[in-house]
Amino acid sequence: MQTSANASHPKGSVWTDPKVRAWIFQILAVIAVVALGWFLFDNTQTNLDKRGITSGFSFLNNSAGFGIAQHLIEYTESDSYGRVFVIGLLNTLLVSGIGIVGATLLGFILGIARLSPNWLVNKLATIYIETFRNIPPLLQIFFWYFAVMLAMPSPKQSLEFGSMFFINNRGLYLPSPSATDAFTPFLIALVLTIVAIVFMVRWGRARFEKTGQPFPLLLTSLAMLLVIPGLTIVLWGNPLSWQIPELKGFNFRGGWVMIPELIALTLALTIYTAAFIAEIVRSGIQAVNHGQTEAARSLGLPAGKILRLVVIPQSLRVIIPPLTSQYLNLAKNSSLAAGIGYPDMVSLFAGTVLNQTGQAIEVIAITMSVYLAISISISLFMNWYNKRIALIER
């Protein structure tokens, strides 16, 4: 019987070796994926040839021929589609960057307020979270755009703040800075001050670890930032000159302007994402062992320092992974800008450029690649930060 079994299943059979089987299945999977990709590519190329549609990315050099409401770099209607792509990318990064910073700050404040022993603060934070996280972001974008920004007064009846800031149904007008001759020494002094502060912080922490004596790092750093660059202003003058927006005719001229679409989109994404971040912060804080806070209280630390020095640093290890997902969601939700006409990647490039050129495959491939690159960049940075703050066993 043993001889028969060995004959039917030889010891060196390929299918009895798990490693060999794993390699065979992986090779077959790769072959299947490559074959499917080639089939799709060949089928697409054949259909394009039948319809006389040219493929390739040469269209990026053609003149766009249309205007763009907001562009962070110089642009004219005679510029190429390639420059339109860059403008759409910068506008997407602008919304994502402002939204991530704003949602993080607001989310942390709300998350801490959610745990406040003050009944009113706790309930207000709860109402905010339960309200805004259960309303679709597109509806919130519509609310801020149609019900708030477009309902603002006309430029002649603008809401004025300090004779420098003006808001109306055409946007928010801000003073714009321009460098003077004193900007270079001011910048050099600022950079040197920051470098000195970094070394001072490291020295202060090492001193505290060695002697247990704290050093007033925050107050000293603020004093250095005020005094050293301030001396350059006294010696060389103001490093910046400001251009104040002025009402000329039917609209304001000069300064910077945030168009209504940008304000509505940024507010909606910030407020929406902050509600989710607040719950992440709340759960992260509650994940910290209660004995940690009791030990800190027994040492006589005030509540503020307990939160800043004991609770938050430990809770970050729980907060960072889900926080990364919210950053990714915010960056991808910025594509909802197409609903109100903000010139981001989807609205500008995958919308207007695609309709004018007909290069659907190329345009969609570029747009998808941009969002993939943004998401991977955010993930890599957050994973690096998560590893840096992770607990290291000794």
Automatic annotation (TrEMBL):
Listed GO biological process terms: amino acid transport
PROSITE patterns on file: ABC_TM1
Record localization: Cell inner membrane; Cell membrane
GO molecular function term, any single one: transmembrane transporter activity
Top-level taxon of origin: Bacteria
PANTHER family referenced in this protein's UniProt entry, alphabetically: AMINO-ACID ABC TRANSPORTER PERMEASE PROTEIN YHDX-RELATED (PTHR30614:SF37), MEMBRANE COMPONENT OF AMINO ACID ABC TRANSPORTER (PTHR30614)
Domain ABC transmembrane type-1: 89-382
One CC-aspect GO term: ATP-binding cassette (ABC) transporter complex
Organism the protein comes from: Pseudomonas segetis
InterPro entries the record matches: AA_ABC_transptr_permease_3TM (IPR010065), ArtM/GltK/GlnP/TcyL/YhdX-like (IPR043429), MetI-like (IPR000515), MetI-like_sf (IPR035906)
One Pfam short name: BPD_transp_1
Keyword vocabulary terms for this entry: Amino-acid transport, Cell membrane, Membrane, Transmembrane, Transmembrane helix, Transport
Entry's family note: Belongs to the binding-protein-dependent transport system permease family. HisMQ subfamily.
Ranges annotated as spanning the membrane: 20-41, 53-73, 85-113, 134-152, 182-203, 215-236, 256-278, 336-354, 360-385
Keyword Iron: no
Topology with respect to the bilayer: Multi-pass membrane protein
The protein's name in its UniProt record: Amino acid ABC transporter membrane protein 1, PAAT family
